[in-house]
Each structure stands twice: as C-alpha cells, then as structure tokens.
Amino acid sequence: TESFRKGSVMYTGYAAMLDLSSIGQAFELKIYSEDRQLLSKHYNDDTHSVDDHAPGSKTSSESKRQVYGWDGFMNHSCDANAYFPLLYRTPTEMCYQAIALRDIDVGDEVTCDYALFDYHCDGHKIEACACGSTVCRGKMLGFQGLPLQTKVELLDMVEEEIKDKFLQEEHVTVYKSYLPQGIGLVTSSIDGSHLVATRRFEIGQPLFINSAELVPMDDLTSRVFLLDVDGKYILLDKDHHFIYRDGYAEMLGFDSFMDHSCSPSTEQEYITKHEYVVRAKKVILPGDKITCDYGCLENGVAKQKNLGTSSFVCKCGENNCRGSLVC
C-alpha cells in the first residue's frame, strides 16, 4: 500500500518457535490492524511455517518450526523482491527485517524466495513453480534442492542455520579473503571475475603481499571450496583457482581471479613458502585489469613448480601471445 526503494526496510517481523505436533499441527492466526482491530482469522498449519534447523530445535521430544504471522502467506518467487535478514533469535521467537531487493511500487506483490529460509520445504514443496519470472527454476524444493552454483549465489542472504547445514552436509570449506587497498574485483557474465586497479601503481611498486592457503591433495578431491570475498561467496573451480604443487595446492584468495596475459602488468616473488609479493611490471592506471603470466608461477622459496593441471587458449591479444598454455 506504499512504495519502497531498493534497500529500504519495509517492516520488522516476528516468528514463534513452536513444536506444532504438540498442538495437532494447526493453530488459529488472528490478524489485527495497527489500531488493534481484529481484521480476520485463519486456521494455519505447517504449510505456513518453516522447519527450524538451529541447534537445540530438534530433540527426542520436540521438533520446532518457525511459525509466522500474516507474512506466512507471502508467495514465493524465484526472483523475489524482498529478503529477510535475521535481527535476533531466542529459544521461543525470532525477529527479522523485510528489506526491498529492488524498488517496489504501490500495488506490487511482495514476494520472497522460499529457499532462503527453508532447507527442505517440508510440507509445502512447489513441484511446478508459477512465479512467472524469467529466471524461474521450475520448482521449489527448498535450499537443498538447488544447483550448487545457485546455492552459492544465495548464500549471503540465507538464514544462518541454513548456511551451517549446507556447509556440513555438502562438505564445504569456506576461505575468507579481503581485497587490499587499490584492488577491485569485477564480475561480468562475459569475462567472469577479474582484478582491476582502483588507483595508480608505478613500475616496481608493490600492489600487495598475499598469503596462500596450503591445501592437502586429499581435501581437494573430497571437499567443495568457497571463497568469501568481502561478504560475497564465490564457488572455486579446482582446475582454475588453485596452483598445484607436489603434494599440495595453493589457494590464493582474491588473487585466484587475476587474469593471465602473455605481457602481464605484474610479477610475483615468494618470500616464504606461502607468502608472496606482487609488483607492477608496467604503469597500472585506475580501471586497468591486473594480470600475471600463468606460466611463471613457480614458488622459488619452496622450490616448487606449477604442475599444470589444465590448458586453455589464450586470448590476451598481446603481440607476443603464446596462443595456448598449460597451467
């Protein structure tokens, strides 16, 4: 009944933490106006509640659900216009805000993505989604039923217990990484993710010192790896985002997204087994893509070569382009 701008708080909501089995799986919901006038009554059930996965919610004697009020009747969309970050929770209730993901005009339906707060959609799965979005997933079976890439894209908005359950069940390791001053990460549907300069660097000037995570080879074959860069999750490709050494691999954090060039703008030098400094080989201006030569990734301190696990056709466009590389 009013307009909301992208990022604005639409309301603060509450949900009760109840074991519905103790009350026959149903309860009466009364909806009141702001001046406390009774507007309507509804008999609610587990269709309008969400299974809770927080520690302590599942015991031998009870199984709690998040039981919502009037917004328990909000419809799902695969391209929802609102999300609901948690403010706090206690053993008996949870409090959250409703945030507009884009501008919402008077008369627009407010929608949510059920996958953000329901791991299984137990009791209200949508076998044929009718949200009408151009990015409709076809069905909604909860967060668990999403493709891995979609889970990662939504991970910064899901409830904490959903995230924890996903990390545990799918054997996920999350590395945290922060962009240094002067370095930006740009993502596009055409070029993917790459590093750019946000300030000027002179020849020989250090851009940053970075520390690699040393990952055992057994973990690489058995786990999924995510990178949390300033709060945004990115799925790491084991073939392209790690440097393989003899017996282990290096995970470089944000630096995993530096593009290759046969005439690179930077060079690196290891100062310990896992730390290295990156310096400018040429003047780098704000907005320039930061590049390195994937063929020169030896770790001189550890006396470890880049073993090279994948090949690609280089499209750097430089006059000395080698055409193809194994790295």
Structure report:
The protein has 327 residues and is mostly beta strands. Helices cover 7% and strands 34% of the residues. The chain is built from three helices and 23 strands. The protein has helices spanning 148-154, 160-169, 217-222; strands spanning 9-18, 26-32, 38-45, 49-51, 65-68, 82-83, 86-89, 93-100, 172-177, 183-188, 192-197, 206-211, 213-216, 224-229, 232-235, 242-244, 248-251, 259-260, 266-270, 275-280, 291-292, 311-313, 324-326. Strands 1, 4, 5, 6, 7 and 8 form a six-stranded antiparallel beta sheet that branches. It has a three-stranded mixed beta sheet with strand order 9-14-15. The chain is elongated, with a radius of gyration of 25 Å. The termini are far apart. The model has no long low-confidence stretch (mean pLDDT 89).
